[in-house]
């Protein structure tokens, strides 16, 4: 649904001294139709530049952006002004902002009607659609209020209703929950998830909170210094040995207790999560395992269990290989030592 | 000079002042608003970025603003004759008044419009809004309270300028204060005009502040402080309820 290839954005901060900041460095992103895709990274990693390049609020220095089969970079034209074609394409992409960006001079309903005004809809149709959307986000009673009279969560609901007014296929969310408290964040994420399911909306969201990815994303990408370091569906990422995202999504840690011992990171998901793999292994291979840490969680709708177990180093190799035979779905990572330890 | 002698003089002078200031304010707003918006749009990073145009407009505005009004009035005489067919009288004074006030108001508009949150512009851009739509739906309505304050300041400045319009025979309060009050030693008349001007300006400022404030109140942003706040000043309770409402 959204594809970027080799997306690069260089800001020329100071022309005379030729200082440049590379915000995006060849980003390839592929968001499938109907999924919730999370891009996570620290401040300055280039997430904001990325999402703003997708609807060309920022012109990429090079690379292409394709949304719903349309190459936006091709219709953008030269110069900073958006031509008619690009404006039409933008009206089919909804966007939600961290600071809501509602017009304080307009009522809630008029704010939601704004995109419809741009699309040239009639007054009657505008108000019908706006009320319908406000009902959808649970704010039907606030149509006549001004944004200043709403709480943060309510403002973001209005922001979401407004973003949906033009019946977009794609919703971009720029840190939509970062200005909200945890409880409100949960309800907004739930709303985004519901909209994604009900309307088949493709959602691309950027965030610096791992919790957001954990609770609603089907796929995720980790950005660092303008590059996508890791990407994939959440289940793929969890199954990838050494994945930073997986470690962050699902942190289970532990250090080996002696030189002859090693730590195994074991992650199960889906069906395998309910099977007594550890005790089976212990019995079958007659090794002593102590569990250093473990957690069970639901990530992106999948149940995941993980544990870091301390076992004799000598049996390490057999242990893992046998495990692979015992259960194909079961995945494990041998972290240390040595770095080139067995993995599969 | 008795009151019965002063009254018709003052009445006429008031009407002359209102007439000149009224028309020149309308023209100044009509001219200054687009000019001020253009100054913001053409600036570096603006929606219609055009550094050359921006520099040219900025320079023209600066030159017009740096000129003392009385000199502007004389310098514009040819233009005034071309527009109104005469260089004396009320109509002839409106031309330099308006032209003097356009750059003044334009700078105030520029300041107000710059204050508008860039995120709002971005939001409308992301919906596919054109530059014109952004001006109409974001820049002007969001800056409106501040624009009203700016217009009030412009009217007050124009009343000040209009005192010099007597030079071209346009009459007005300033004119009779000079001609009767100063040149004929009619101190009573002079103080009366001063008092009228003070009252008129206070009322204008009060009205402007009230309008700006009522918009602010609606939109929930902190408005300008009113010159006269009879209730909240005397009864602290009203301030408290204000604060409660806001929180």
Key descriptive features of the protein:
heterodimer, A: 344 residues, alpha/beta, Rossmann fold, Alpha-Beta Plaits, 2 domains, 6-stranded mixed beta sheet, 4-stranded antiparallel beta sheet, 30% strand, disordered C terminus, B: 247 residues, mainly alpha, MetI-like fold, 79% helix
Describe the fold and architecture:
The complex is a heterodimer of chains A (344) and B (247). Chain A is α/β, with parallel strands linked by helices and 344 residues long. In chain A, α4 packs across α5 and α6 runs parallel beside α7. Chain A folds into 2 domains: 237 residues, P-loop containing nucleotide triphosphate hydrolases (Rossmann fold, 3-Layer(aba) Sandwich); 87 residues, ACT domain (Alpha-Beta Plaits). The two termini of chain A are 32 Å apart. In chain A, a hairpin with a 2-residue loop joins β12 and β13. In chain A, 33% of the residues lie in helices and 30% in strands. Chain B has one domain: MetI-like fold (Orthogonal Bundle), CATH 1.10.3720.10. The interface between A and B is medium-sized, with 32 and 27 residues.
Question: Quick gist of this model?
Answer:
The complex is a heterodimer of chains A (344) and B (247). By secondary structure, chain A is an alpha/beta fold.
Write the layout of secondary structure elements.
The complex is a heterodimer of chains A (344) and B (247).
Chain A lengths: L1 E13 L4 E13 L4 E6 L5 H8 L7 E6 L2 E2 H4 L8 H7 L2 E4 L11 H11 L4 H14 L15 H13 L5 E5 L7 H18 L2 E6 L2 H7 L2 E6 L2 E7 H6 L4 H6 L11 E9 L7 H9 L4 E10 L2 E11 L3 H11 L4 E6 L8
Helix pairs in contact in A: 4-5, 4-6, 5-6, 6-7
Chain B lengths: L2 H39 L9 H16 L2 H7 L1 H8 L5 H25 L3 H9 L4 H32 L10 H10 L4 H33 L10 H5 L1 H11 L1
Helix pairs in contact in B: 1-5, 1-7, 1-8, 2-5, 4-5, 5-7, 6-7, 7-9, 8-9
């Amino acid at each position: 649904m959204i594809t970027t290839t080799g997306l690069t954005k260089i800001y020329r901060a100071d022309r005379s001294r030729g200082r440049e900041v590379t915000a995006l460095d060849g980003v390839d992103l592929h968001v499938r139709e109907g999924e919730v895709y999370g891009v996570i990274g620290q401040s300055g990693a280039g997430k904001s530049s990325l999402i703003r390049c997708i609807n060309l609020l920022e012109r990429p220095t090079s690379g292409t952006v394709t949304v719903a089969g349309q190459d936006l970079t091709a219709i953008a034209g030269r110069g900073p002004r958006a031509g008619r074609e690009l404006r039409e394409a933008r009206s089919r992409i909804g966007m939600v902002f961290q600071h809501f960006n509602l017009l304080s001079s307009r009522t809630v309903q008029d704010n939601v009607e704004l995109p419809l005004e741009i699309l040239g809809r009639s007054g009657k149709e505008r108000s019908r659609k706006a009320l319908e959307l406000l009902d959808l986000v649970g704010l039907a009673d606030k149509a006549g209020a001004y944004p200043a009279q709403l709480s943060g969560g309510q403002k973001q609901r209005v922001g979401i209703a407004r973003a949906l007014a033009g019946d977009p296929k794609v919703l971009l969310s720029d840190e939509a929950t970062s200005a909200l408290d945890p409880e409100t964040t949960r309800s907004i994420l739930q709303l985004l998830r519901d909209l994604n399911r009900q309307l088949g909306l493709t959602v691309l969201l950027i965030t610096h909170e791992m919790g957001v990815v954990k609770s609603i994303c089907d796929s995720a990408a980790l950005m660092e210094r303008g590059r996508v370091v890791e990407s994939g569906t959440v289940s793929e990422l969890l199954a990838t040995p050494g994945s930073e995202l997986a470690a962050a999504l699902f942190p289970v840690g532990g250090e080996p207790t002696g030189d002859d011992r090693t730590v195994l990171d074991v992650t199960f998901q889906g069906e395998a999560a309910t099977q007594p793999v550890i005790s089976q292994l212990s019995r079958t291979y007659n090794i002593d395992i102590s569990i250093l840490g473990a957690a069970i969680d639901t990530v992106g709708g999948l149940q995941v269990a993980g544990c870091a177990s301390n076992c004799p180093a000598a049996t390490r190799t057999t242990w893992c290989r046998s495990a692979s035979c015992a259960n194909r779905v079961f995945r494990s990572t041998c972290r240390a030592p040595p770095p080139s330890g067995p993995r599969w | 000079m008795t009151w019965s002698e002063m009254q018709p003089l003052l009445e006429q002078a008031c009407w002359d002042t209102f007439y000149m200031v009224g028309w020149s304010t309308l023209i100044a707003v009509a001219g200054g608003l687009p000019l001020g918006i253009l100054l913001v749009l053409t600036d570096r990073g603006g929606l219609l970025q055009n550094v050359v145009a921006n520099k040219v407009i900025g320079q023209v505005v600066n030159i017009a603003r740096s000129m003392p009004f009385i000199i502007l009035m004389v310098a514009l005489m040819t233009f005034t004759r071309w527009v109104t067919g005469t260089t004396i009288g009320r109509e002839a004074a409106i031309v330099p008044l308006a032209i003097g006030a356009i750059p003044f108001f334009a700078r105030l508009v520029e300041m107000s419009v710059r204050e508008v949150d860039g995120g709002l512009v971005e939001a409308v851009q992301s919906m596919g809004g054109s530059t014109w739509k952004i001006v109409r739906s974001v820049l002007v309505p969001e800056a409106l309270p501040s624009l009203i304050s700016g217009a009030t300041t412009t009217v007050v400045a124009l009343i000040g300028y209009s005192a010099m319009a007597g030079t071209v025979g346009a009459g007005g309060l300033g004119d009779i204060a000079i001609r009767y009050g100063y040149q004929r030693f009619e101190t009573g008349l002079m103080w009366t005009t001063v008092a009228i001007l003070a009252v008129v300006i206070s009322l204008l400022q009060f009205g402007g502040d009230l309008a700006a404030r009522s918009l602010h109140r609606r939109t929930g942003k902190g408005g300008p402080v009113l010159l006269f706040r009879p209730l909240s000043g005397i009864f602290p309770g009203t301030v408290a309820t204000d604060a409660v409402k806001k929180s």
